[in-house]
Design brief:
Layout (H helix, E strand, L loop, with lengths): L13 E4 L3 E4 L8 E5 L6 H20 L1 E6 L3 H10 L6 E3 L2 E2 L2 E2 H6 L6 H16 L16 E5 L5 E6 L4 H9 L2
Helix pairs in contact: 1-4
Length: 175
């Protein structure tokens, strides 16, 4: 699995999103694109992150496209999106032989010890906000990640670990 880094060309993808039809990297040619890699909607941390992303998304989408990837099963993602609709494509990445192609293409693999420790703290916050664990789906050790791709297809932001929307927004404000 290659670890995509700032300055690399972003790997192409085409998927049918669960809510807004087909989505490809090339759909966003000419403008920045934010790619968010979650785990699955049964994960309380991912629920909290997605809720916060829904609040932030109008700010992000003023200047950039936004695509969210999940390892949830289609039915689980649909149930969550029925309660919390998104104005950006949400892609259920199909599992094939224990692999999730776009996660592998971007080098979003297993979380490290630092991310794991921060997830424990974040899970307490998620529980305090009423988030409960649902079905286990995808790779339980899956790291989170986010990337920004410029309008020419080059990665200009790469983060593997917890989603920090404030830092991402500060970066986007500079574009």
């Amino acid at each position: 699995m290659a670890r995509i880094k700032v300055g690399d060309m972003a790997p192409d993808f085409t998927f049918n999103s669960i809510n807004l039809g087909e989505v490809s990297l090339s759909d966003y040619s000419g403008k920045p694109l934010v790619l968010i890699f979650g785990r699955y909607f049964g994960c309380p941390i991912c629920q909290l992150d997605f809720d916060e992303l829904l609040e932030y998304s109008p700010k992000i989408m003023k200047n950039a496209g936004l695509v969210y990837f999940t390892q949830s099963k289609r039915e689980s993602a649909k149930l969550y999106l029925d309660k919390y609709p998104a104005e950006f494509p949400v892609v259920v990445v199909p599992e094939k032989n224990g692999r999730y192609s776009v996660y592998d293409d971007y080098g979003v693999g297993n979380m490290g010890l630092g991310t794991l420790a921060r997830m424990l703290v974040r899970s307490r916050l998620a529980r305090s906000k009423g988030k409960t664990h649902g079905s286990y789906e995808g790779r339980e050790t899956q790291s989170l990640g986010d990337f920004v791709v410029d309008g020419k297809g080059k990665v200009i932001w790469a983060n593997r670990g917890l989603l920090e929307l404030d830092k991402l927004q500060l970066f986007l404000n500079k574009l």
